[in-house]
Design brief:
α13 links the parallel β12 and β13. With 461 residues, the chain is of the alpha/beta class. The protein is built from 17 helices and 16 strands. The chain is globular, with a radius of gyration of 22 Å. α4 crosses α5 and α6 runs parallel beside α8. Helix content is 37%, strand content 15%. The two termini are 43 Å apart. It binds adenosine-5'-triphosphate (ATP). Adenosine-5'-triphosphate binds next to α1 and α4. It comes from Pleurotus ostreatus. Its EC number is 3.6.4.13. It is an enzyme of class 3 (hydrolase).
């Protein structure tokens, strides 16, 4: 990589006035699941996304080019190689703030599927000193699946740099590994804490600390403690830029987020801006639990037109449904946190490659997972607060709902979500979601398959 310029604060920043020509996008063939080839999928998709990028009201819109954001030439090459042509709104707004010096913390919010990952990955890749073989950027995500996906973006965007990367996820490093020299480390909070404690990660040169899905990572009832532990092990000899991104920042974590990332630049959404317009929301009134299963099976043909993710409350439900459907001759996979690391990796990779078109899962992959072919999400069970708090709270979990349905409708694509309700309680819970988001959830009859098919096809047009 051409050397970056070091400024007065010791940070490496992209040269402002590079004269090298911008590299034209080039098409690469191969397996989509390989990190270097993710751009291929984006490119296919950009054809659809680009008209929205010209609409000033869209979160995908930007008046600027990537060049105008002051990125290093080698990163521009990576961006164009991934098939991106223009920044999205969050990228345009956040990048100048993220790259300015002295570095300032950031709390950034933007709807699901609008390109937050690129904003923080480009910041990490812009801030590191490529001549130092020590960890300089740490990124935490709530699941191993998301950490692996973020890493694939780091690798793709950093393809024309000499960045070295390493995972901090369970069962990844060889036993007895003593020191990580990679500059960018992406992982989950538990393993990152463990590696730092054991001094396998030396944080003395860390300049950037990113929390993706930050509201979830800071939630005191969830991953908050572990994330705080990582932060407390960061060096105090120099400022570390703290970057928090999510599509949601509920009130109960906002104050803590501001304390965690003091004096941060903030990009925030209003409650009525949270849902993504391209996702059409439906519900089906099922008679009882067993009827939910029958309806899901009857939807199989529609679920497999593109790809679908079915969210259940419990791991056991996900396994049970998947076993039953498999026994009845349907091809589905199930994924949840009780499976071991290797199995989880194989399942999500298989789904990404399209080997299975239906994935039955829990909240473990409700956040962040980006698979463009997913055009349908089914809430087999609605997400409830008690899954987060274990406090017996039966209120719907609006944030998790938004993240779940946000697995479809990525970057301007069309998508469908279907909620199964089966009694008065679940119907009222769904009504609360509808009210909170100010978006109509349309009923689909469970006994009229032609109407069902027609409505869904229309929604995807
Ligand atoms: N400027 C761009 N041009 C074209 N495609 C883009 C651009 N930025 C991001 N994308 C693509 O848009 C998709 C969604 O991006 P990303 O996963 O970063 O969304 P997100 O905002 O992090 O969503 P979530 O809140 O669900 O985590 C990805 O497939 C990514 O490659």
């Amino acid at each position: 990589m051409a050397s970056l310029e070091k400024d007065a604060d010791g940070f490496y920043t992209p040269a402002e006035s590079s004269t090298a020509p911008v590299v034209a996008p080039k098409v690469e063939e191969g397996n989509d699941a390989e990190p270097g080839n993710w751009g291929k999928r984006s490119r296919q998709f950009n054809l659809r996304g680009c008209h929205q990028q010209a609409d000033p009201n869209s979160p995908l819109y930007s008046a600027k080019s990537f060049e105008a954001l002051g990125l290093h030439q080698d990163l521009l090459k990576g961006i164009y190689d991934m098939g991106f042509s223009k920044p999205s709104k969050i990228q345009e707004r956040a990048m100048p703030l993220l790259l300015s010096n002295p570095p300032t913390n950031m709390i950034g919010q933007s709807q699901s599927g609008t390109g937050k990952t690129a904003a923080f990955v480009l910041t990490m890749l812009s801030r590191i000193d490529y001549s130092i073989n020590k960890p300089q950027a740490l990124c935490l995500a709530p699941s191993r699946e998301l950490a692996r996906q973020i890493m694939s973006v780091v690798v793709a965007m950093g393809k024309f740099t000499q960045v070295q990367t390493e995972y901090a996820i369970k069962d990844h490093l060889p036993k007895g590994a003593t020191r990580i020299t990679a500059q960018v480390i992406v992982g989950t909070p538990g393993t990152m804490t463990d590696l730092m404690r054991r001094k396998v990660i030396d944080p003395s040169e860390v300049k950037v600390f990113v929390l993706d899905e930050a509201d979830n990572m800071l939630d005191q009832d969830g991953l908050g403690d572990q994330t705080l532990r990582v932060k407390n092990m960061l060096p105090r000899t120099h400022p570390v830029q703290i970057i928090l991104f999510s599509a949601t920042f509920p009130d109960h974590v906002r104050a803590f987020a501001s304390k965690f990332a003091p004096n941060a630049n903030k990009i925030e959404l209003q409650q009525n801006e949270l849902s993504v317009d391209g996702i059409r929301q439906f519900y089906m009134d099922c008679k009882n639990e067993e009827h939910k299963y029958d309806i899901l099976v009857s939807l199989y043909g529609l679920l497999t037109v593109g790809q679908s993710i079915i969210f259940c409350k419990h791991r056991q439900t996900a396994d049970r449904i998947s076993q039953r459907m498999t026994a009845e001759g349907h091809k589905v996979a199930s994924l949840h946190g009780a499976k071991d690391a290797a199995e989880r990796d194989a399942i999500i990779d298989g789904f990404r490659e399209g080997k299975e078109k239906v994935l039955i899962t829990t909240n473990v992959i409700a956040r962040g997972i980006d698979i463009l072919q997913v055009n349908m999400v089914v809430n087999y069970d609605l997400p409830l607060m008690n899954e987060r708090d274990r406090g017996g709270d039966e209120r719907p979990d609006i944030e998790t709902y938004l993240h779940r349905i946000g697995r479809t409708g990525r970057f301007g694509r069309k998508g469908i979500s279907i909620n199964f309700v089966h009694d008065r309680k679940t119907w009222l819970q769904m009504e609360q979601i509808e009210k909170a988001l100010g978006k109509k959830i349309i009923r689909i009859e469970t006994n009229d398959f032609d109407e069902m098919e027609e409505k869904m096809k229309q929604a995807l047009k």
